[in-house]
Design brief:
Layout (H helix, E strand, L loop, with lengths): L16 H15 L16 E6 L5 H12 L3 E6 L11 H10 L4 E6 L4 H11 L5 E7 L5 H15 L13 E5 L6 H12 L3 E5 L31 E3 L3 H5 L4 E4 L15 H8 L3 H4 L8 E2 L12 H5 L6 H32 L1
Parallel strand pairs: 1-2, 1-3, 3-4, 5-6, 5-8, 6-7, 8-9
Helix pairs in contact: 1-11, 2-11, 3-4, 5-6, 5-11
The structure holds N-carbamoyl-L-aspartate (NCD).
Length: 347
């Protein structure tokens, strides 16, 4: 495995092919640990992972908790409802309270884009080695979801050997509320980074025309793109047309809580135009899998019958794969931190 250099994971725009390879390879190893007998690895014994969720979460928080416990870390959970946030404390000040308690990794979710990055900078300015792992910030980024989707697709195309090259030249369609989706943004970076071509599909109100220029070269804030040749990204408005050459389709929840105004007048017509059903999968040239990051609105993003059809959807696999992928991220972030500590000790 090549050297991992990230002290924090904020988004995937700065991931190289080797970074994707490291995560996929480690996740694959963690995934093949027998599920019987001693399930815990000692890797993070004595480490403290703090889940700071300033926004509700079902699967991401629980998945990070299991991942940390599987590596024998101690886990602390912060919940917005019972915290001093209601007394006016800022998110950054709350985070520093947990740093003072000894957190080695802060897993942070916040409704405002930029909070995890701001926190990472504040920690670095103070010379504190606590790592920040973004668990979703506003519309910006959800890197662990992007990576677990990548792992799920890489395993689908290349069972048992989910290398980044498994995605090369694959045609992946992402449908729905792309404008408000941090999952779509992270998937676009990850998929194009591994050479897949991404087609975005949705109505103009949820997918503005200029979204195809989302992948700038170089990525925002960086001098060069760490990926030499990204896959393409394009917009197709018609679901039928977008699915014809697809190798996989991912559909997204309509994120009403992140919409500034009511962008859809009629959910039923949205479903008729963009809802994924068994019938519309017949437009594809081949049998393709359907992904969704969850939570799903039955009968809006996809039909209830399709959601129940485990022979087509990879949704349970996505949830399951979240654990080894998050174990890989926690492992990588704490191993770089240990190297820092050893180096500082020597100086
Ligand atoms: C997503 C999120 O929170 O961004 N869910 C998740 O983490 N699995 C997607 C969503 O909220 O629709």
């Amino acid at each position: 495995m090549t050297k991992w250099t990230h002290r924090h994971v904020i988004d995937l725009s700065n991931f190289s092919l080797e970074d994707y390879r490291s995560v996929l390879e480690l996740a694959n190893r963690f995934n093949s640990i027998p599920k019987t007998g001693a399930r815990k690895l000692p890797a993070l014994q004595g480490r403290l992972v703090t889940n700071l969720f300033f926004e509700p979460s079902t699967r991401t928080r629980s998945s990070f908790e299991l991942a940390a416990r599987n590596l024998s870390a101690d886990v602390q959970n912060f919940s917005i409802n019972t915290s001093s946030q209601s007394k006016g404390e800022s998110a950054i000040d709350t985070a520093f309270t947990y740093v003072a308690m000894g957190a080695d990794v802060l897993v942070v979710r916040h409704s405002c884009a930029g909070i995890p990055e701001q926190l990472a900078k504040a920690l670095e300015n103070k010379g504190i080695s606590t790592a920040v792992l973004n668990a979703g910030d506003g519309l910006h980024s959800h890197p662990s979801q992007g990576l677990l989707d990548l792992f799920t697709l890489a395993n689908y195309f290349n069972p048992g050997n989910p290398v980044p090259e498994s995605l090369a030249k694959k045609e992946i369609v992402i449908v729905g509320d792309i404008l408000h989706s941090r999952v779509a943004r992270s998937n676009i970076w990850a998929l194009t980074g591994c050479g897949a071509n991404v087609t975005l599909c949705g109505p103009e109100s949820l997918l503005p025309e200029d979204f195809s220029s989302f992948i700038n070269s170089p990525p925002p804030g960086q001098e060069i793109d760490p990926i030499q040749k990204r896959g393409n990204i394009k917009i197709i408005r018609s679901l039928k047309e977008s699915l014809q050459d697809a190798d996989a389709v991912m559909t997204l929840r309509l994120q009403k809580e992140r919409m500034q105004q009511n962008l859809l007048t009629d959910l039923n017509s949205y479903y008729l135009e963009y809802g994924i059903t068994h019938e519309c999968l017949k437009w594809c040239k081949q049998r393709i899998p359907v992904l969704h990051p969850g939570p799903v609105n039955r009968g809006i993003e996809m039909s209830s019958a399709l959601l129940n059809d485990k022979s087509i959807t990879l949704i349970d696999k996505q949830v399951k794969n979240g654990i080894p992928v998050r174990m890989a991220l926690l492992y990588l972030l704490t191993s770089i931190e240990s190297m820092d500590k050893i180096n500082n000790f020597r100086h």
